[in-house]
Every structure is written in structure tokens, then in C-alpha cells.
Amino acid sequence: MIAYIDGKLAYKDPAQAILDVNGIGYEIKISLATYSKLPAEDERVKLYTYQHIKEDAHTLYGFLDPNERALFMLLISVSGIGPGTGIVMVSSMSVGEIRQAIVQEDVRAIQSIKGVGPKTAQRVILELRDRLRKDELLAKAGVDTVPLARAHNTNRAEALAALVTLGFARAAAEKTLDTIQSRHGNDLSVEALIKFALKSN
């Protein structure tokens, strides 16, 4: 997993950026929030990344703000939300707006995002509201919740990527991980998630 890329901004548009690192250009999908804060081309920039691995493609998603990346990772941990929908969500609303909509169970706000139907909006709220409420309490207590969110959701994302690489269909792998996490909780390591998944098939 590539955690971040630090290099010269060779190109940018509202959907992607290309970072030049020692003569190698990395094409990275970005959110509108990240695009609006990028420096001018040829200046140096650091993007926090998520690498999405499919049978036919490896795609990088990048964010200037680690909090935006953490929320993106939370969103794509929800069954039925892939990176494409996740990037649309964080492009349509700010990190604070999405977190508030989930905590306040505002289905209409989540559903207003392109590509997110009522069932998916309800699933996002159902799966993430308690976690985000807990994050709010921890934040009020002075605990940094970004590493916590990154750890829990990177584990699922990495396990999912590994299972797809091992030959699982993405939909089947997501369903298997849903079952495992409903039985054993959301704090399992990458290795534990993969082992449970392999034993279930």
C-alpha cells in the first residue's frame, strides 16, 4: 500500500493530478477539495494516497488532507461503495458536512450525492454513525482519531485488495468481509480478515 506520494505537480485538473517523482509520473485521482487547494504546476506537493487494486487496473486516489483520506477510507469500507463513489462523495460535500450528515442520520443529505441511492445512504449511516459519534467523543477528549480511522478502514481495504488479487470477485469479497466483521467486529487485523475469508470459501 502506498501511503503518500511527494513530488512535483506536473499536471492537474478537477479529477486527477500527475506527480513527477524522479522522472516517473504518478496519475492520481483526486477530489474537488484537493484540487482547489493544489499549488501551481511545477511546485512540490504531498498527497496522502489509497491504492485500489482490481483484476485489470491499479488506481491511486490522493488527498491533501489526511482527514479527507480517513473519511474516504471509512466510506469505502461500507458495502456497495467503491472508490469511484467515495471520491464523488468527498467531492460533493466537505468532510465536516458528511460527518455531520451521518451522525445526525440525515439520509436526504447523503442521498443527494450523485450515485448514492436511499438504501446506500441508509447503509452508510447505519454502519458509520456509531463510529463517528465515538470519534467525536474522543476528539472532545483530545484524542487524535485520524490514526484510529485509518487503521480500522485501511485493514478492510487492504484485505479486500488482497482477496481480489487472490482471485475473489470484488462483490463476493465484500460480502465475505461484511459477514466476518459482523461476527467478529471491526478491529480485526488485515491478516485475520484474510484468514477468515479464506476459511469461509
UniProtKB/TrEMBL annotation:
Keyword DNA-binding: yes
Domain of life: Bacteria
Region (Domain I): 1-64
GO-annotated biological processes: DNA recombination; DNA repair
SUPFAM superfamilies assigned: DNA helicase RuvA subunit, C-terminal domain, Nucleic acid-binding proteins, RuvA domain 2-like
Region annotated Domain III, chain positions: 151-201
Compartments in which it is found: Cytoplasm
Keywords: Cytoplasm, DNA damage, DNA recombination, DNA repair, DNA-binding
Domain Holliday junction DNA helicase RuvA C-terminal: 155-199
GO cellular component terms attached to this protein's record: cytoplasm; Holliday junction helicase complex; Holliday junction resolvase complex
Keyword set includes Cytoplasm: yes
Residues covered by the DNA helicase Holliday junction RuvA type domain: 1-62
GO MF term list: ATP binding; four-way junction DNA binding; four-way junction helicase activity
Record remark on domains: Has three domains with a flexible linker between the domains II and III and assumes an 'L' shape. Domain III is highly mobile and contacts RuvB.
Classification via NCBIfam families: ruvA
Subunit structure: Homotetramer. Forms an RuvA(8)-RuvB(12)-Holliday junction (HJ) complex. HJ DNA is sandwiched between 2 RuvA tetramers; dsDNA enters through RuvA and exits via RuvB. An RuvB hexamer assembles on each DNA strand where it exits the tetramer. Each RuvB hexamer is contacted by two RuvA subunits (via domain III) on 2 adjacent RuvB subunits; this complex drives branch migration. In the full resolvosome a probable DNA-RuvA(4)-RuvB(12)-RuvC(2) complex forms which resolves the HJ.
Entry similarity comment: Belongs to the RuvA family.
Free-text function comment from the UniProt entry: The RuvA-RuvB-RuvC complex processes Holliday junction (HJ) DNA during genetic recombination and DNA repair, while the RuvA-RuvB complex plays an important role in the rescue of blocked DNA replication forks via replication fork reversal (RFR). RuvA specifically binds to HJ cruciform DNA, conferring on it an open structure. The RuvB hexamer acts as an ATP-dependent pump, pulling dsDNA into and through the RuvAB complex. HJ branch migration allows RuvC to scan DNA until it finds its consensus sequence, where it cleaves and resolves the cruciform DNA.
Protein name: Holliday junction branch migration complex subunit RuvA
